[in-house]
Amino acid sequence: QVQLVESGGGLVQAGRSLRLSCAASGSIFSMNAMAWYRQAPGKERELVASSTSAGTTKYADSVKGRFTISRDNAKITIFLQMNSLKPEDTAVYYCNAHYVLVAGGEEYDHWGQGTQVTVSS
Asked: What is the C-alpha to C-alpha distance for residues 29 and 12, in angstroms, rounded to an integer?
C-alpha cells in the first residue's frame, strides 16, 4: 500500500533551519501535484506550500521567502526547506501528494501522518 512518511521535524531555536522530508513507499509511478500543510493547536490546518505537476509553486504569505518546496522524482520524496524559523511556525506539518500508480492511470492523493516542528524563542 502507498504511504507518505514525514521526517526532519524537531525542536529548534528561532532563526535556525530545518528540512522536512516526505518519502513515499509503495509502487508509485510518478508524483503530480504536491503540498505541505501545517496545523497548530486550536487552529485549522493551513496550506503552507504547493507545487503543480507543471512546476508552479505557491506559498502562504507567512512563509514566503523563508520556505521552499521541492522534490526528488527519482526517490519519490517531497521536501520543505524551512529557513529563518519563527515561534509562530510551531505546528504539526503534513505532506500531501497527488500521484499515479501506472502510466496514464487514475490520479490518487494521500496524506502523511505528520511531523512536529517546535520553534523556541
From this structure: 35
Q: Could you report the per-residue pLDDT of 49-106, keeping only the tens digit for each? A: 999 888 899 999 999 999 999 988 777 889 999 999 999 999 999 999 998 888 888 9
Contacts of 116 (CB under 8 A, 6+ apart): 9, 10, 92, 93
Which cell goes with 119? Answer: 520553534
Q: How far apart are the first and last CA of the chain?
A: 40
Handedness of CA 13, 60, 113, 105 (dihedral sign): negative
- CA–CA dist 59, 79 (Å, integer): 14
Q: Which amino acid is at 98?
A: H
